[in-house]
Amino acid sequence: MRRVYLDHNATTAVHPEVLAAMMPFFGEHFGNPSSIHWAGREVKKYLDDARERVADLIHASPQEVIFTGGGTESDNMAIKGVAFALQDKGRHIITTRVEHHAVLHTCQFLEKMGFEVTYLPVDGDGLINLEELRRAIRQDTILITIMFANNETGTIFPVKEIGEAAREKGVIFHTDAVQAVGKLPIDLQRLPVDILSLSGHKLYASKGIGGQYIRKGTKLFSLIHGGGQELNRRAGTENIPAIVGLGKACEIAKRDFSQRVAHLQTLRDRLHQGILSRIPEVKLNGHPTLRLPNTLNMSFFYIEGESLLLNMDLEGIAAASGSACTAGSPEPSHVLLAMGVPPEIAQSAIRFSLGWANTAEDIDYVLEVLPENVDRLRSISPLYHKRKKN
Ligand code: PLP
Question: Are 40 and 34 in contact (CB under 8 A)?
Fold first, then answer.
């Protein structure tokens, strides 16, 4: 059976060039970069080099980039780090209702510690109202944390305008760019962002490695104490193979950027148009144009996204309903509900997220298999029969 993987927003396969770059660091180059002898010195060079490559992709200086254990850790370090550093100045944080749980649950934790959090609503396309953001900023606001692009719908936030609003009031701006890095141009020379989170495994590097950009002069407490690694911000011996891999993945993302984006967008639009022409009563979730080039989230009315997903899995197709971290839970997605999508339509949503290795044949296979599965599930759906009678 053909196997088609369309769940790249959940995770990606390590790129062959990344894997090749990582391999020597499990054996030949095994040193601890903090050691002063030859084994350590040799590895330290590669650590510095990887930092430069990550910085280069987002137009930052290497002194502003540290390595972490992944996107979740970067988000926690940013939000708790600012909260703890600035709690004497104020205890108010602004975020949105559609953030990843790495941000939402961190904010909820801080609420239990006495901080106050404003969760901004979004419109039907998943975007916040900038006026509402400006109005929400108070004297005691210390942090705005808003994602670069949404993991479920791909909707892209107006990061520049959000950063400008934050800067005007002297508030720190953190953005979770886990889904954006490598898929959107990010220039931190031009964007007023203070802290940015990224994750290796969404970008063809390995799992358990992430990065954090911290603009020079940004007040942030560290959460992991020990040795002085990572500019004293995150102690612990560095995961060198994964770091070298992330550096390579960033180098490739920069090298292949235009070609990758064009490829993803072409395939995504082929899938979207193909679904619209073959299946009635469907709906796009997310902004029609301000959207990640690889993401297509659609509702198939009258059926459960979860059932469709299982049926597609039997045909060798991997996609997602809701976000990967909440898959398996019967609750409709908090992102779609926040966008005002009715619960039964939210529950019928499927997210297709494409990667560089996908082909037109992959998409055509999905378009061949999907309509018959939707038809079959609709034929046994009480909702569908009720609708037909009315
Ligand atoms: N933020 C966003 C927007 C994500 O999509 C994810 C993963 O799905 C994360 C954070 C968490 O990243 P990680 O899996 O590297 O911890």
Answer: yes
Residue nearest to atom 14 of ligand 1 (CA): 71
- At residue 6's C-alpha, the angle toward residues 277 and 382, to 5°, is 55
* Cβ contact 305:349 at 8 Å: yes
As a whole number of angstroms, the distance between CA 160 and CA 188 comes to 10
Spatial CB neighbours of 237, under 8 Å, sequence gap ≥ 6: 32, 34, 227, 229
CA of 273 to the centre of ligand 1 (A): 28
Neighbours of 239 (CB within 10 A): 18
333-374 pLDDT tens trace: 999 999 999 999 999 999 999 999 999 999 999 999 999 999
333 close to 346: Cβ distance less than 8 angstroms = yes
Which residue among 178, 292, 333 is best mutated to probe the pocket of ligand 1, counting the most ligand atoms within 8 A of its Cβ? 178
Given this model, what pLDDT does residue 89 score? Answer: 97
pLDDT in tens, 190-233: 999 999 999 999 999 999 999 999 999 999 999 999 999 999 99
Q: How far is CA 173 from CA 106, 188, 292, in A?
A: 16, 12, 21
The contacts of residue 279 (CB under 8 Å, 6+ apart) are: 300, 370, 371, 374
pLDDT of residue 329: 57
pLDDT at 249 over 50: yes
User: pTM of the full predicted structure?
Assistant: 0.97
d(CA 107, CA 220): 16
